[in-house]
Amino acid sequence: MVRRLLFAAVAVMVFSVSAQAFAAAKTQGVYVKVLEGMKADIAQTTPKVEAALKGAGFTVLATFRNGVPDGCTYKAETIVFTKDDYAAKVLAGGADKSFALPLRVSLYEDNTGLNVAMMNPVSIDRTIFRGASMDDAAQKVVDEVVAALKAVGPAQEKQAGEMRETGEITGMGGGAFPDKVIPTAASSKSPSEIAEALKKGINEPAGWHVIYTYNPSEAVAIVGVTKAKTEGRAFGIAGEKRATSANPFPGIDHASAFPVEVVIYKKGGTSSVNILKEMWRMKLYFQDAGNWAFMKNMAMPGDIQSEIEAGIKKTVK
Predict the structure, then answer these.
(1) For the chain, which has fewer Cβ within 10 Å, the N-terminal or C-terminal residue?
(2) Which residues form the domain of 182?
């Protein structure tokens, strides 16, 4: 009897510790800074981060050099990656929830050295799922990334960017996720076939081009597109109110906001090609830039959306 009680008590303790390990804090930043101020070369460190992620069971989909603001001498690179068990939990919420995929971590330089930050899946999932239903799964991913990157440097979990408690995006350009999905095209082809077509059709090195294609299931494909000039402008705007003489371009710490997702999923007998309303997506990742920054650059989100839509419509017939 005593032995059974002791076993039960130990089991409860183990369960409690395990639950606490993945408990997400109420307030979450849109980004998590994992490493900072390292005296290291970005070109030599990026492969180390990739290797650490792979060693922790993640799959790296792509790595690319981000655009930076005009006059910025710092560099930034983003690694796009995923993990099957996490992706399956996201997809269980519905194909439209694929906008929460894949994961991204960026390396970027500033006046203190080399830093690493990831888009925070806890915060993003709270917005996409309109609640905390994905908190445990998303926090587990963050914990696994932090643990993996301890092989690269003194990794930690430090919240950064816009701080949110519920994931709700308020104010100008805000609103709820389901209303911000924009169907752009439809086709009888499969999601994977459309993704391959977009890879070939949106392919301007100096303009919009595809960074990755990702098929988390047969019914869903995700294509990541970006444009270096747009990235640089976005990071310049994101850092305006934080800029100092020592670090005039702090906004490149938002590098993992890109690429922009094009999500393709089966809907009835056709495949639907979708993007997010770009003003809302900019608020999702760049709200900490402040309302004045959005007001001064009101045309930018519409221009991004129109350019991506044009590329999709030119390709998907």
Answers:
(1) N
(2) 26-315
| Region 251-273 average pLDDT | 96
Higher pLDDT, 24 or 50: 50
In a domain, 10, yes or no: no
Q: Binning pLDDT at 50, 70 and 90, where does residue 15 land?
A: very low
Burial (CB < 10 A; 0-12, 13-18, 19+), residue 309, is middle
Residue 81 lies in a domain: yes
> Which CATH number goes with the domain that contains 121?
3.30.310.70
Does the structure show a pLDDT above 90 at 239? yes
Alpha-carbon distance 159 to 30, whole Å?
8
Is residue 131, in this structure, part of any structural domain at all? yes
Indicate the residue type of 203: N
Instruction: Enter the pTM of the model.
Output: 0.92
Q: What is the pLDDT of residue 3?
A: 57
Mean pLDDT (the chain) is: 93
Q: Please give the average per-residue pLDDT across 34-60, as a whole number.
A: 98
Please report whether residue 8 resides in a domain.
no
Structural domains of the chain, count? 1
